[in-house]
Write a structure and sequence with these properties.
Layout lengths: L1 H16 L11 E6 L2 E6 L4 E8 L5 E3 L20 E2 L5 E2 L3 E4 L2 E4 L8 E2 L12 E6 L2 E8 L10 E11 L2 E10 L4 E2 L3 E2 L17 E4 L1 E4 L13 E2 L11 E2 L14 E6 L6 E7 L5 E7 L3 E5 L7 E2 L5 E2 L6 E5 L14 E2 L4 E12 L1
């Protein structure tokens, strides 16, 4: 990492000398911190690449899965830590209709679109618009027709340490000329025991969602809203993640959107507890859905320090609009029209017990 950081510093100095010192010209590494609470990012995908958090004894661990070198994120297929969009999650049939106009997108998961397509927001360079000791902001201009989506879109994401062990994430998007679906998500793979501590199946999780959106065999929502009670998806009370995971067969684990209680107001969405370290992670958000994913398809991925990540080595808490909402009129709309602004707020609060 030190060698790569040195190379990046030299590159940045050369760019400055020739008048091209723009953070969007090449992937870089950026740090924000307050005390011993430290986060690092790259402008490739506006990606969170590490987060150091103390355990109950004050020992620090990096709790975000990721790669050793920033260059490896350009070939990532797991969306480690990135902002995904223009529409996160899945769009069935890679198509939709707005105002009588039918749009065909570029499918990248069988006939469907996942996380914005072949080259989504996780696979582009963002511009660093602000970088201070405890905050950083990125922006991206998505062109009309990109991956088949209509309209030019201005997108921004800001990460800030707003209090000790509190990380705030604010995502914004404005359509410049056409109505378009927008559903951004922050896709960090969390293991609050430490990124190299093994699987998360013994962690305890509570999800504040009384319903979920069941899916077909291709993970496209059916359009129904179903109670979690009496199902393996019921985490209204704290439960060990692995306690009922075998009931999900033939699925490999959890990969489901929850209908959060509280609608679009800011509310507590989930709480995770790791008994060994004592770390607790809480997520609050203002959006209506939360995708709970247990890294089912991460297999033999070499990460930081040469540690090899396997299935269930982390969990994702992707606050979002409902998947495929553009094709389900009964779901909360994700259509943003010119003059309106998409607003997605997340707050991660860390503590110990």
């Amino acid at each position: 990492m030190k060698k790569m950081a040195g190379i990046l510093v030299v590159m940045m100095m050369l760019m400055l000398m020739i008048g091209l010192c723009n953070a969007s010209e090449a992937p870089g590494v950026y740090e924000i911190k307050r005390g011993n609470f430290c986060a690092k990012f790259t402008n490739w995908g506006a990606t969170l690449i590490s987060l150091l958090v103390p355990d109950r004894h004050g020992n620090l661990a990096d709790i975000a899965l990721g790669y050793q070198f920033v260059s490896e994120y350009t070939n990532d297929t797991s969306y480690f830590g990135s902002i995904v969009g223009r529409v996160a999650n899945r769009i069935g049939g890679a198509q939709f209709t707005i105002d009588g106009i039918h749009y065909k997108l570029i499918p990248n998961e069988n006939k469907n679109m996942l996380h914005g397509g072949v080259i989504g927001f996780s696979d582009v360079l963002w511009k660093v618009t602000k970088h201070e000791s405890d905050r950083i902001s990125f922006s991206y201009h998505s062109l009309d027709g990109e991956e088949g989506f209509p309209g030019d879109l201005e997108v921004s994401v800001s990460y800030a340490i707003v209090a000790p062990y509190v990380l705030s994430i604010r995502m914004r998007a404005s359509s410049l000329n056409k109505a378009t679906p927008v559903n951004l998500a922050q896709h960090t793979y969390w293991n609050i025991g430490g990124h190299n501590s093994g699987d998360v199946l013994s962690d305890e999780i509570q999800i504040f969602g009384s319903q979920y959106t069941p899916t077909d065999d291709n993970l496209i929502p059916t359009g129904k809203l179903v109670t979690v009670r009496g199902t393996p998806y019921d985490f209204l009370e704290p439960q060990i993640i692995g306690s009922r995971i075998n009931q999900l067969l033939p699925l490999r684990g959890y990969d489901m959107n929850y209908v959060l209680d509280g609608g679009k107001k800011m509310k507590l969405a989930a709480r995770v507890y790791n008994k060994k370290s004592g770390r607790v992670m809480e997520l609050s958000t203002n959006v209506p859905g939360l995708q709970f994913y247990t890294a089912n398809y991460v297999q033999n991925v070499t990460g930081k320090g040469g540690f090899v990540y396997q299935p269930h080595s982390a969990l994702c808490l992707e606050s979002q609009g409902f998947p495929d909402s553009v094709n389900h009129p009964n779901f909360p709309s994700q259509i943003i029209r010119p003059g309106k602004t998409y607003k997605h707020n997340m707050v991660f609060t860390f503590s110990t017990r």
